[in-house]
Specification:
Layout: H1 2-18, H2 26-57, H3 60-64, H4 75-78, H5 82-86, E1 92-103, E2 112-118, E3 125-133, E4 139-142, E5 149-155, E6 162-173, H6 175-180, H7 201-210, H8 217-231, E7 233-234, H9 246-252, E8 254-255, H10 257-270, E9 275-282, E10 288-290, E11 295-302, E12 306-310, H11 312-317, E13 333-338, E14 360-363, E15 366-367, E16 372-380
Helix pairs in contact: 1-2, 7-10, 8-10, 9-10
Length: 384
Amino acid sequence: MLWGLMLRRLKKGFILIFAREPRLKWGEQAKRMNGNKMKRFSWIAAFLILSLAVVAWFGRGAALFGQAPVGRSFEQYRAVGAAKAQTPWSPQAFAITYGGRIELNAEEGQNVKVWLPLASDRDGQKILKREIHIPYDFEVTRDPVHENEMAFFEVPSPAPSAIEFTIDYVAEVSQDEFYRRNEEQSAEKYLTPSRLMVIDEEVEKRVKAATMGRNSVLQKARAIFDDVLGHMSYDKSMPGWGHGDTLRACLLGKGNCTDFHSLFISMSLASHIPSRFKIGLPIPDESEGSISGYHCWAEFYDPRSGWQPVDVSESWKHPELTNAYFARFSTNKFLLSVGRDLILVPRQSDAPVNIFFNPYVEIDGVASEAKFEPEFYFRKQNQK
């Protein structure tokens, strides 16, 4: 009904614009011409405004105004490179191995404790199989704050020079599973900065400039996303990258995914938007092979739509997918842990763990710089 009314008004406008005038006396004709000029101008302006509204209605306007059409399909982005663009959003099933060798360097009589991160059912991810191969007795525990699972074990003395282990999984990841359970009952716990994800004068200054004129959580988060994307470059040439140090990211504007998302989270927290850090393994486009290392991303909480993922560093690498990596869950990730400054279970003796991806080792109650030689493999399963 609405579209019919609009079309009828447009038709009337076109008739007014192009219809020929009847013969009138000179004075009357002049008055009619001046009036019709104004009417024609009004109808042309209305037509242009309606055209812009139609463009925005169908989602393309979102890109013009700097916002992704959250909840809609991204077929226009997926068309850019079929395999690369489709994989991150299609449901995926895969077998994956997280393993490697831990060099201990412990002396006889020293107490050695080890915590390994474990993937679990959560946040769009279903673990169909989990087989843990560790040469010692272990227990599976979970931290009560971030719900991270882990395998804990102690190494009897004398400890060997190294420990080898593997954890084999079969997992499924899907958007539907994520958005069914993306609400949060206690989002306020994700409003606290960490030791390295700080809020200082520089962060607050950046947030104020980036979010000026933005009202909703979604608008503010997108403004922060764009600011980080414009400020940072994926560059590991300078020492100090990979720790998720917000001050370094602000100063240098360089780093890896950890640094990109630490800056995003700090700015979000400064804008009073609950945000959290996630880390795991990236799933390549190929059908099987090795994985070179970790990948991390972030999520912010919108009270109206729940947790919304962002991947600023991947947007930097693939600018054609920038809109799709904002507030859109991608399935090419295997989640291992959530949060920063973690307290493990049983509680470690040393300081909170900055990032829980590698095995965490303590020797006589002190965090060890144990060298970890990782071996990560994946093999995609046939999709149903």
